[in-house]
Amino acid sequence: MSEFATERDRAADLIFDWNEVNRKGRILPKNATFFDETLRDGLQNPSVVDPSIDDKLKLLFLMEELGIHMADIGLPGSSPRAFEDCLRISKELTSAKAKLRVACAGRTVVSDITPMIELSQRAGVPIDVYAFIGSSPIRQYAESWDVGLIAQRSAEAIDIAVKAGLEVTYVTEDTTRSRPDVLTTLFRAAIDHGASRICLSDTVGHATPDGVRNLIQFTKNVIAGTGRTDVGIDWHGHNDRGLALENALWAFEYGADRVHATGLGVGERVGNAPMELMLLNLKLLGQLDEGHDLTKLLEYSQLVSKALHWGIPINYPLVGRDAFRTATGVHAAAIIKSIAKGDRWLADRIYSGVPAGMIGRTQEICIGFMSGASNVNFWLALRNIPSNERLVSEILRTAKGLDRIMTDDEVMAVVERVREAS
Ligand SMILES: CC(=O)SCCNC(=O)CCNC(=O)[C@H](O)C(C)(C)COP(=O)(O)OP(=O)(O)OC[C@H]1O[C@@H](n2cnc3c(N)ncnc32)[C@H](O)[C@@H]1OP(=O)(O)O
């Protein structure tokens, strides 16, 4: 590292970064906030288990350490148990003087809003109200709602929350398939009645980055038309087309100042934008400051997995079992050379777009049918087993005859066999 003044100099010298050529943006707005939906939308997934309150609190404190600004803790109006859970969580966060802002969701109906007001009063903490209603023609058709009814329900709900002194974000479900004239009417009415934010929801995972840009630009224009400069824009996206992460990143670039995501992307159906990957990408784009301790990402993701009983796919970026593991000879050889130079920076980057050390992981080398001598020598050296040509070729011969990587016991069995034979 000595010939480079800083890590940045070193990266610039050793890596040509095509991402940075004519980079147009992905610039996080100064007032950007991250909104964690794991404990609301995440829990709408039919395969999860509702975590214990203790696990929910642990997760919320981890969010705070990660520099996540806000979390939705549920729908207190949906059942007495949901209310009591939200109350306990809010009280615990208040007594711990947590910086994390608490939000709750509910339909734009009085019976969903009043529990949030009661919650706020009893916990002694402001609750951000996320009041939602379907706005697209397909939702209107299914529910037999017209725009007048939607606007009227929305206004009533917003009025009650605003009168109680709570911040209201007006959530138009299925915004990405809603008509502009309807959105204009609804957004204007919501702002008139005191909503401080508009949440654009890609409820069914329909949007492409073009759609995100079009919709955010349109919304900015509607807000500008009201003469207000203090109304923020949320982006809430789903992953049905596999575009949730990309859309979330582009939403920031196009002008949303608050973007929603969930741990491991868990959420309704195929889920939401994954929080850990959104933070990771922003960090790699040089957009996150020191307030975001990404070494906590592993713990955060593993806790989401444990608390919600949600398996992590083995090839999942960052936290999957194989994210930093290789059995491939050419890859392993280059990583091993980097390690032999005593150069963790190099070892972390030579064959990975994400440095393992950034989140407290290390590169692992296995032995399999795609391996070469480097894998074997490294494996032996890690265990202080002296290497020799015969041992290496015997292990490799065994590895090449298998249809999967070798277990440690299988490699050790070869080591013992060769030892006994010599
Ligand atoms: C933003 C999103 O992700 S939307 C998903 C929000 N999360 C959830 O739904 C999970 C928690 N939900 C629940 O526990 C229940 O669905 C409850 C308590 C909210 C409602 O339960 P129920 O009263 O039995 O109604 P049910 O769930 O069968 O149907 C939903 C009702 O809400 C109505 N509804 C939905 N949004 C709105 C709205 N903004 N304003 C008025 N009514 C609404 C639907 O039209 C439907 O009404 P209907 O019963 O007259 O047909």
Helix content: 40-55%
Distance between the termini: 43 Å
Structure classification: alpha/beta
Number of separate domains: 2
Structural summary, described in words:
With 422 residues, the chain is α/β, with parallel strands linked by helices. It folds into two domains: 25-308, Aldolase class I (TIM Barrel, Alpha-Beta Barrel), CATH 3.20.20.70; 325-421, no CATH class. Helix content is 45%, strand content 11%. The chain has 16 helices and ten strands. An eight-stranded parallel barrel has the order 1-2-3-4-5-6-7-8, surrounded by six helices. α4 (110-123) runs parallel beside α6. The longest helix has 17 residues, at 147-163. The protein is elongated. The relative contact order is 0.09. The mean pLDDT is 95. Bound molecules: acetyl coenzyme *A. Acetyl coenzyme *A (ACO) binds at residues 44, 75, 78, 107-109, 132-133, 143, 153, 173. Acetyl coenzyme *A binds next to β4. Keywords: Manganese. This is 2-isopropylmalate synthase. It comes from Labilithrix luteola.
Question: Secondary-structure map with pairings?
Answer:
Layout: H1 7-14, E1 33-36, H2 53-65, E2 70-72, H3 80-95, E3 101-107, H4 110-123, E4 127-134, H5 137-143, H6 147-163, E5 168-173, H7 180-192, E6 197-202, H8 209-225, E7 232-237, H9 244-254, E8 258-261, H10 275-284, H11 297-308, E9 325-326, H12 329-340, H13 344-349, E10 364-365, H14 373-382, H15 389-400, H16 408-421
Parallel strand pairs: 1-2, 1-8, 2-3, 3-4, 4-5, 5-6, 6-7, 7-8, 9-10
Helix pairs in contact: 2-3, 2-11, 3-4, 4-6, 6-7, 7-8, 8-9, 12-14, 15-16
Acetyl coenzyme *A (ACO) is lined by residues 44, 75, 78, 107-109, 132-133, 143, 153, 173.
